[in-house]
Design a protein that fits this description.
The chain is mainly alpha-helical and 143 residues long. It is built from 6 helices and 3 strands; from the N terminus they run H-H-H-E-H-H-E-E-H. It has a 3-stranded antiparallel beta sheet. Helix 3 crosses helix 6. It is globular and about 60 Å long. The relative contact order is 0.10.
Length: 143
């Protein structure tokens, strides 16, 4: 079944291996470190809202622009809701939707896997990087 056919029939699944499948684009959006961090912060606060400034404070290294882009994408996808208080300056609050909250479980599993295996991966990278004839892929260096 093609992605177009899946959409037309209302099927809920795509084909990850099809270059035109929207699943690839969704995975690109939800697979970033900033998305994972934002979902984590918002899930920890759920069902309460978190202000933009607090999100930024709890996500070390994220720029205001990157956080804004990430939250805009999450809101567009229906994973977070955004509420603006009409104050000067405006106070902007975010909260996970039920759909967004359901994303925390798989993202938490990926974060836990990364934390559990990072030392091993670092060790393997160091070994591979120390090999003069290797680019770390086992295929040798390309010229």
């Amino acid at each position: 079944m093609t992605t177009r056919t899946a959409r037309a029939t209302g099927a809920a699944r795509g084909d990850l291996f099809s270059p035109t499948c929207p699943t690839r684009q969704l995975l690109d959006r939800i697979g970033t470190k900033w998305t994972s961090m934002a979902i984590k912060v918002l899930a920890d606060a759920a069902p309460q809202e978190v202000r933009f400034a607090e999100l930024r404070r709890r996500m070390p290294g994220v720029s205001q622009k990157m956080l804004s882009v990430t939250l805009h994408s999450l809101a567009r996808d229906g994973l977070v809701t955004r509420r603006v208080e009409p104050t000067v300056p405006p106070r902007v609050h975010y909260r996970l939707t039920e759909l967004g909250l359901s994303l925390e479980i798989p993202l938490a599993a990926v974060r836990a896997w990364a934390e559990r295996h990072m030392a091993e991966i670092d060790r393997i990278n160091a070994i591979n990087d120390a090999r003069p004839d290797s680019d770390g892929t086992g295929r040798g260096r390309s010229s």
